[in-house]
Amino acid sequence: MVCSNYFVSRKEVIPTVLIDLPASLALGHLFAVIGSRALEQYYKKFADTYMKPLSFAMLYMIGCYVPITGYFYFAYPAWSLNYLWDPERIPWFLGLIVVPGYAMMAFIGWVSAAFWIVRKKSWVACLQLFWALSLVAVVCWLTSDAFLHIGDYAQFQLGEAPLLWKERGFFVMMMVMGGLLTAGALVAGYAIWREGRRYHASIRLGSS
Asked: Three-state DSSP class for 167?
């Protein structure tokens, strides 16, 4: 099987970098929008209303998103590069720049969305989120052929890379990793939302 040794081979690859970068930006926007109730009180208590929700978002990115997407990048560099470049011609250390860049993109997404939310213009942050999600959708559409095939760079260029779901071991692993990414995002999103709700409740109690 093409992917029988996918845990150790760097020649069998996957297309995600062009998706992960805008997706990371969208996650930053999304977490900020979820935390808008806390961010709107930014000027009252910076540590609780800005830094604490941000820490939940970055904890998810650094503790969950970057390790999982980083694994795919280093284990399957061609898929991660959408078969646009031969991974054998790309310096191995490029991944040490690209993968941590996902967390940086999320941070930029958070800060840029929060910039408008603290100024009571959450609609601008929502537009940013819509734009980022639209970019993800466009990239997914443009790279769908590469995403649905798993093989090495030469196989894909020759049209011989098998469909992703036919490589059962890899497909199951990808579903599990995707589930972990989704579950982690839900936990982080809930923590951010709860923080905003908690802070608003403390304000109501203090004013009553």
From this structure: coil
Handedness of CA 126, 58, 105, 16 (dihedral sign): negative
Q: What is the pLDDT of residues 104-143, one digit of tens each?
A: 999 999 999 999 998 889 999 999 999 999 998 888 787 7
Q: Backbone phi, then psi, for 151, in 5-degree steps? A: 180, -170
| 8 A C-beta contact, residue 153 and residue 78 | yes
Neighbours of 27 (CB within 10 A): 28
CB contact at 8 A, 81 and 17 = yes
Nearest 5°: the CA angle 67, 73, 75 is 95
Q: Which stretch of DSSP H or E encloses residue 151?
A: strand 151-152
Contact at 8 Å (CB) between 30 and 140?
A: no
Q: Is 119 helix (H, G, I), strand (E, B) or coil?
A: coil
Q: What is the pLDDT of residues 66-108, one digit of tens each?
A: 999 888 877 776 666 666 666 667 776 777 888 888 999 999 9
Angle of helix 52-60 relative to helix 168-207, nearest 10 degrees, comes to 170
6 φ, ψ to 5°? -70, -15
Contact criterion met (CB below 8 Å) for 151 and 160: yes
